[in-house]
Amino acid sequence: MERAQTSLNSDPEPRGRWSFWRNLSGFWLLGLCNNFAYVVMLSAAHDILHQQESHNSTSPRPLGGGGGGGGGGNGSNGNSSLYDCNPVSTAAVLLADILPTLVIKAVAPFFIHKFPYGCRVLTCVATATASFLLVSFSSTVGMSILGVIFASMSSGLGELSFLSLTVFFDGSVLGGWGSGTGGAGVIGAFLYSAFTQAGLSPRTTLLIMLVVPVVMTISYYFLLVFPPAFSQWQCMEEGPVRNNQERRPLMEEEEEKEAAEDEEKPDERFLEPLTFPDKVTVIRGLVKFIVPLGLVYFAEYFINQGLLELLFFPASFLSHAEQYRWYQTLYQIGVFVSRSSLFCVKIRRVWIMSVLQCVNAVLLCVAVQFHFLPNVFTVFVIIFYEGLLGGAAYINTFHFISKETGAREREFAMAAASVGDSLGIALSSPLSFFVHNYFCSR
């Protein structure tokens, strides 16, 4: 047992700085690749739906039609709406993109240990590849939505597996993983916007993105330096080491001193697993974190998938599809910046960001109704600010959960609270559908 503990949790120095940087960069790339398909599918939502409509329409899409934030004109999709609406709201793409992830987060932790990590990663690669191919060559809305579902499955399973995998490595790989997932938002949305703006079709752009599952495969199987005792293709049987030492609670970098003190207390390293009543008690204590986080994501994804498609300015040099893509890109930049701000500022009162995000949602909903925003650049600023709020709420929520929960409960608390953002996103979809149908029927 002691030999396994030493090999699985050893400091990177004995294995060399080269191994340390390989693992750090490997987890950064895994984080990037894992969230890439999810981000691209949300950025491509407008094009995914318009692509199907184009196949069923005999008239070309006018470039100057429609009206949203600026009002006026017939929709460029050939409907009589003032808002240049797709026949199916982009909220449909959001729903297909979040529900599988939500189900996996809620159910998989109870049985995922029965599947080896090597098999899990192959599943992630296969489903991500299938998602890009299905959406690229789809001829119906249903086929496109199926592709989005595969992207969601890959992202959900990957997040669950790679976060668990970090406990077998030096603690610094957690920072690499987090940075990579934040970079996925910016790089994924930016590359999709840039490629399509440069004249590539959405189909060609998505086919180029097939390099992402390849990079994930190389990063996991060839870049990472696994500990000698790590079992790649066999199930890791549950036991004292796996339950308590290998699956030690994840800590922030500023808690290194506290972690070092814990290492000097062997009696505290082997903690009894939580019972079901213990978990219920922990969840009750997490409500004060989960509710504000869920509300932030409810408001911001109602904005992103319910309102942004309706905020179209026909006088702008950007087409409707281009405006929507850059809305998503600026949002992701805001999220990335604020998720990287923990070392600069910490905000304990997450509910403040919930209130501010709800104000944003009300403001933009009124703007869709009355068209008072002067130009698309005003919306750009609001959307960047929206991303800042969402990213700050996320990172501060989990920072203070890790600081305010005990060592015995911390791992479960971090996992249980992760459902907050996914639940908020899922609940925003019905409201997004309703708002879309209300405005597009006018």
Fold and architecture overview:
It is found in: Endomembrane system; Lysosome membrane. Keywords: Lysosome, Membrane, Transmembrane, Transmembrane helix, Transport. InterPro entries: Battenin_disease_Cln3, Battenin_disease_Cln3_subgr, MFS_trans_sf. The protein has helices at residues 2-8, 17-43, 45-55, 91-107, 117-136, 141-165, 173-197, 202-208, 211-223, 240-246, 256-263, 266-269, 276-307, 320-339, 350-370, 376-404, 407-417, 419-440. By secondary structure, the protein is mainly alpha-helical. The longest helix has 32 residues, at 276-307.
What structural class should be given to the helix and strand makeup?
mainly alpha
Low-confidence stretches: 1-12, 58-78, 237-255, 261-270
Strand content: under 5%
Helix content: 55-70%
- Can you count the helices? 18
Number of DSSP E strands:
0
- Silhouette: globular
Give the SSE string.
HHHHHHHHHHHHHHHHHH
CA-to-CA gap between the ends?
69 Å
Radius of gyration, whole Å: 23 Å
Overall average pLDDT: 75
Tell me which oligomeric state these chains represent. single chain
Biggest sheet character: none
Main location: membrane
Family: Belongs to the battenin family.
Transmembrane segments: 20-41, 91-112, 124-153, 173-192, 204-223, 282-303, 350-370, 376-400
Organism: Scleropages formosus
